[in-house]
Amino acid sequence: MISMAGELAMVSAAGSAAQTNTVTQNHIAVVDIGSNSVRLVVYDGLRRTPLPLFNEKVFCGLGRSVSATGRIDAEAADRTVATLRRFALLLDAMQVDQVQAVATAAVRDAENGADFVRQLSGESGFAVKLISGLDEARLAALGVLAGNPRASGLVGDLGGGSLELVGIGETKCGNAITLPLGPVRLQAQFEKSLRARRKFVVEAFARQRWLQNFKGKTLYAVGGSWRALAQAHMAAIDHPIRVIHEYNVLAPDAIRLTERVANMDVGQIGLIKGLPKSRQPTAATGALVLNRLLKVTGVRRIVFSSYGLREGLLFDQLAANVRERDPLLHACEEKGAALGRFPEHADEITVWTDPLFAGESESSQRLRRCACLLSDIGWRVHPDHRADHSMAEVMNSPFVGINHLGRALLGIAIYFRYKTEPAEGPISAYLEFAGEAASGARILGRALRLAHTLSGGTAGILRDCPLRISQDELILAMPKKFADLNGEVLQKRLRQLAQAIDLSPRIDIC
């Protein structure tokens, strides 16, 4: 009868709350030695949706000298060695003994790259692996699939030294190439000639005729330079959800943005609202590469992914049955278990709300299940702030497997679980963004509010007090043993829910 229509279908609900998606509880670290930066991320385990416990990035600039001299210069090498020594001490203090360290384009292309890898391994105490461009492309694609199992199109991963491109579809990787188009490399190679830099980019793409196969499809963008452009676009249009993952921009809009940024000098780029300062030096070149890729492929839209090589490394190690599980449901199960009082209550609430949502789509059913899992996360907060706090928890959590509209609907539902009518604040922007689809989320929120009022947040009662719709009435059936639960607050919240779906409320004591 009611549907939270409008969310783009992502993946079907897989597994149940009782399933565990954890392979190991031991923390695991990834060290990513790139052409521009060196990053350490420590995750809470090898899991379907790993949570970063620690994240640090240092700009070491390994790729700045490689294009000119063919070698990693001493200053960048020393900075990288010092960074890895720091990381090693932190990992020892955190008692992390599972470390995966990979070096990419700059080290791969340097004459002294192999010697440098041996030096890094010896200085840090953990093995550093030099990966090929095709392996880098494959891992980036796996990262995108880890964050969006239904992703289909072209993955582009722009690092400081190279651009990896790989086709994906049906949870698999296709053709892959690596091109020497990283912003750090290009700016060092063509430091004094923007025209030569543009010509090099155009010619590099012109040789890749297979990219025309992606006309009308989706480009999944990975890499800090491109994510920075997404942040600038969000700020420019005042997008209400400031989460990079699954941020969606139509190709014509992305082309206009990248053309503007690609033609700016450093002083102008510094004035771009929302563009991180650390990415300003390479913003124009990153925009140039993206602009040309959009034009050559003719893709319909670009979707930015917060998952990439590092997450692909972890995803590659998971058992097949774990990789197939739904990343959003997994994350919501874990958050509900960590923050809620009675996590097992979510199963009961999901079934109890079924009569309100007859005929809903699979994607809407999945979102409703997630809302039920998260429906008690605000209980520790002061009652006056539960709605805003819980909504913010949903809107800012590192969820994957969900697009921005789906995130907005989930946040709206959780807001109205705690509050009947919207107050001033972010909720207004989310309601406007969701449009007509918000009505179903508001109804779900009122249903969750009624469910917790009736049950006291505990499992058992809802099974004996089902909802049903009969002609123009919303009926709550209550056995005589629960008749005393029929109080003023319960009646009020049943009435509010019934009004939202244009029905009359009735309580049957039977």
Give a quick rundown of the structure.
Helix content is about 45%, strand content about 15%. The protein has about 500 residues and is α/β, with parallel strands linked by helices.
The spatial strand order of the largest sheet comes to: 8-7-6-9-11-10
CATH superfamily of the largest domain: Hypothetical protein af1432
- Cα Rg: 25 Å
Proportion in β-strands: 15-25%
The whole-number mean of residue pLDDT values reads 91
* Distance between the amino and carboxyl termini: 26 Å
Query: Spans of 5+ residues with little confidence (pLDDT < 50)?
Result: 1-24
Return the CATH class of the largest domain. Mainly Alpha
What is the third-level CATH name, the topology of the largest domain?
A: Hypothetical protein af1432
Query: How many extended strands?
Result: 14
The biggest sheet, with number of strands, parallel, antiparallel or mixed sense and barrel status, is: 6 strands, mixed
State the helicity in percent bands.
40-55%
Notes on the structure:
The protein is an alpha/beta fold. The protein has 3 domains: 28-131, ATPase, nucleotide binding domain (Nucleotidyltransferase, domain 5, 2-Layer Sandwich), CATH 3.30.420.40; 134-311, Nucleotidyltransferase, domain 5 (2-Layer Sandwich); 327-509, Hypothetical protein af1432 (Orthogonal Bundle). The protein is built from 22 helices and 14 strands. The strands form 3 sheets. The protein has a 6-stranded mixed β-sheet. Strands 3-2-1-4-5 form a 5-stranded mixed β-sheet, sandwiched between helices. The longest helix is centred in the N-terminal third of the chain and has 20 residues, at 74-93. It starts with 27 loop residues before the first strand and ends with a strand.
